[in-house]
Specification:
This protein is α+β, with helices and mostly antiparallel strands and 946 residues long. Among the domains are: 164 residues, Beta Polymerase, domain 2 (2-Layer Sandwich), CATH 3.30.460; 151 residues, Nucleotidyltransferases  domain 2 (Four Helix Bundle (Hemerythrin (Met), subunit A), Up-down Bundle); 196 residues, no CATH class. 55% of the residues lie in helices and 11% in strands. The chain has 42 helices and 16 strands. Strand 6 and strand 7 form a beta hairpin. Helix 32 runs antiparallel to helix 33. The longest helix is centred in the middle third of the chain and has 34 residues. The radius of gyration is 34 Å and the shape is globular.
Amino acid sequence: MLKTAEDSLNLNQIVDPAVLRETLDAIATEHGGASLEARQAVLAEVKRVNAEGRETARTMLFDDGGGTACATRISHLQDVITSALYDYASIHVYRVENPSTSERMTVTAVGGYGRGTLAPGSDIDLLFVLPYKNTAWTEQVVEWILYILWDMGLKVGHATRNVDECIRLSRSDMTIRTAILEARFLCGERTLFANLADRYDNEVVEGTGPEFIAAKLAERDERHRKSGDTRYLVEPNVKEGKGGLRDLNTLFWIAKYFYDIRDTKELVGLGVLSKREFNLFVKAEDFLWAVRCHMHFLTGKSEERLSFDIQRDIASGLGYQDHPGLSAVERFMKHYFLVAKDVGDLTRIFCAGLEDQQAKQAPGLTGVITRFASRPRKIPGTLDFIEDKGRINIANADVFKNDPVNIIRLFHLADIRGLEFHPDALKRVTRSFRLINAELRENEEANRLFLSILTSRRQPAIILRRMNEAGVLGRFIPEFGKIVAMMQFNMYHHYTVDEHLIRTVAVLSSIDKGEEEREHPLANKLLPSIEEREALYVAVFLHDIAKGRPEDHSTAGAKVARKLCPRLGLTPNQTELVVWLISEHLTMSMVAQTRDLNDRKTITDFGEKVRTLERLKMLLVLSVCDIRAVGPGVWNGWKGQLLRTLYYETELMLSGGFSEVSRKQRTAHAREALGEALSGWSDKERAAYLKLHYEPYLLAVPLEEQLRHAEFIRETDKAGKRLATMVRTNAFHAITEITLLSPDHPRLLSIVTGACAAAGANIADAQVFTTSDGRALDTILINRELPDDADELRRGASIGRMIEDVLAGKTHMPEVIARKTGARRKPRPFIVKPQVTISNTLSNKFTVIEFECLDRTGLLSEVTSVLSDLSLDIASAHITTFGEKVVDTFYVRDLVGMKITSETRQLNIAARLKAVLAKEEDEVRDKMPSGMIAPQGSSRRGRTPA
């Protein structure tokens, strides 16, 4: 005996319609159908049935993994409950013995529910269809059903309309038209539903295909725009995001509207989809439904964003396991993005074909359809391709078979002629994947064309993205294929690895065309002087090519480049340059953000690694492109300033201008320049002030800043203040500077960073200087939060007052931080193993302590407090945050100005720091005394002039 679809879905295990109706009939018999007791009993029963049915659906989802099956089961459960409630209301509560023609209705499922699928947290969209106008009976029945559903805790979207209203509103409102397109009969008067369906087909759908298609495509584009216009966001929206379920819905809506079908499978018989494409549709839909149902079950609500918080649990629920180089959650997310890519391929090709077909029937349409108005014409210089209504197409079906290089040539011609792609050409590409083999990969012409695409002065990133979406890029360069759709489970990277690489090329191209002069002035200036432009583009494109491998991706990527570059036609010298750039692509940004750029050893070490000005230029540009392409908000002007400082210092060294003698000369010159700039001061005031500052201050701080500090110190002294703060905003650097003048003491930096944490300020860097009279002149750089300068200045002033209050003993630090952190927060899903590194080789004068761990409020304050407990003098601090991970570096000495050379003491420092780093996020140390003003003459650093 053949199993029916219902048997295979085990729908009776979810709920048996006959049993529910018998139970409700029994309630009506026992309590009287319309009584309050009966209503309460009915509500209790449908609540129980709903809860048990959903729990059964959840269990079956874990057992068989069927996403579409789960959504169908929950929809069936809702069908049975809604139908039973209608029967109960119409028979036992508001029974009419001889109903008039107006006392009829049909209860219809519309929208997603109309498709016969529901996620656990989905809205229940109901349309109560009436023959004519509303009557007392229809109002009472509808109200009774709705109130029961609401009392069950369900979210119900509903409308009550007669057939005429449904037709009239469908003509004017595309949302209503789409909802009724998917209308499905649930219960009530079946002939009324048939009447609605017939009139909808004849009076709404007939002759309006182009209008509907244009509206749905415009709606899709706007939805994509709102979600970032990429399917490769690492926290995607499973329902509304690009490549999500709504894209599949759009495909089905258009097909159903145009072809009058009831099931996607009918598209195969019509020749719209091949069997392979239909199977791809089914698999993608099933996977996305499985993910969405798991999300709703896990969160207990209609959660559509696949956030970091739940990705691990979803991966576990779907049975993913860790593999070398990729965790279970990263493997799950890679599968998700591959499915999203499949959805994009299906919707793009299908919708583009319909655009083309409809354009012939409705040439007056606007938007995506009207641009295809001209006839196909030859493309000069080739017999294999034609331009068809603004898109490149193949001249005949054997173009790729006759010459496989044409697969790459298709994209090359699209680039140089600025053409979009005809869906027929993309379909033929998909069916020619077997031609992208070892022979084509080694073909000299194919590689020349690809290198031309990559280094194009037009829009290389757009063509690379088209190649990637078409599946060509990962096949032509198999190493790239391994990182397609690969995500990294952290808050730092916003996109998948392949999307990041393509976006990096986009940034480089933008700088190359001179479009980034304001944002990246140095990179914009250097790029035209770089001789090996091709090598730079290849390095940018390949720098993360080895992500997801057990080996360090920079090292593994260099090996990939050494093999791949000769294939692309690069010379041995160019190949070695690309290999070096990839192996060191993180070095410049890490040195700039985590090292003291005023320490000569930092510059000499970096300079010895770079060796040539050409490599320095290229590494600077690569670093800028890499950081910019990580995601929105990652790049800021402060990072740009750090990179520029490192570049200029290293350039000076590589050109022979950096030496100890020149440093002393520069210090003397800086002191002289400061003295000349203090023109309004008396000779006595000027002489006294020039003795305050040591060499590091004079060399590190620009003259303009030195003058600001001079006036600040002068005014503070005149006012007789021991404590003072000064605030300045810098919109270009996206930084707000808070400068503090205070008596020096061991815990000063700890208090300052704690006050910033309590105020919710994210510290980007800290410049720490001591004056010769025992005071500290510290500048804390915090990330800007408010767009308006006046608002940001008020915010900075508020933080400054908090720092002063804590230092003066008016505010107790642990209490302030406790108020900020509040109640215990849910643990974040990220794991960062705490690490502490202590080195005496990174600086000639200081011991460098570097640690990394999971970021949390008050961490920096706790760490600096521990360093003070250990009698360490903090010379400079460099704070770097990569999403959820913090990498902080401290340059320290002991209180007599020596490096920490004792191995025992180093081990003790590391142990104390690891204990702090491993603490839970909302624990706050309570060791700092509230009044921290040190007596005159004390020093936390014991700094003496060099």
